[in-house]
Amino acid sequence: MASWIVRAVRQSYSLVASPALIRASPRLLCTATQQKNGPASEGAERPEQSAAETLLLEEKTQLEDQLKDMTEKYKRALADTENLRTRTHKMIEDAKLYGIQGFCKDLLEVADILEKATDSVPKEEVTTQNPHLKNLYDGLVMTEVQIHKVFTKHGLVKLNPDGQKFDPYEHEALFHTPVEGKEPGTVAMVTKVGYKLHGRTLRPALVGVAKAP
Hints:
- This protein is of the alpha+beta class.
- Helices cover 65% and strands 15% of the residues.
- It has helices spanning 2-16, 19-98, 101-120, 131-153, and strands spanning 156-159, 171-178, 187-192, 194-197, 200-203, 205-211.
- The strands form 2 sheets. A 3-stranded antiparallel β-sheet has the order 1-4-5. A 3-stranded mixed β-sheet has the order 2-6-3, with no helix packed on it.
- A hairpin with a 2-residue loop joins strand 4 (194-197) and strand 5 (200-203).
């Protein structure tokens, strides 16, 4: 009995002291340590990665906002430039068309004087028996016709609105009076003709307007 116990103790000692078991023990310890510490290490790395991702997202958002702001500014600058170009072009065209309006206004007075001069000559006196008056009258008429041709050439049109409906943009009412045979609101009398330059009223016609009795 005693000898059997001694043999069992010796076998147990030899098994514990076996070189293969000794070599395997560190490996088992390392594996156990890695398994124990593994989740903690991953948990330490994840906050670092999450902070980096958050920083990148913030930078991306800032860049996108800056890009959007610059795009809006660029579009506004383009629109302002186009508006300026359009206004400048219109100003140039208006200067070409209406740059002579001051000169035209001065010539209108000359045309008015010529018209009054021709109207003041008695037509019955304009005969071959009175050659001087006839020549003078014919010269005035030719001058008046020529000056109106020049006006038409440069876009200056005469306004004689007798019988037309009163237009406050083209006519200036001097008085209102009942006139037989004239509809209320129409021009009953023209005391001074008006003129338009390229569709723009240069001088309104001075008129009397008919009204209801």
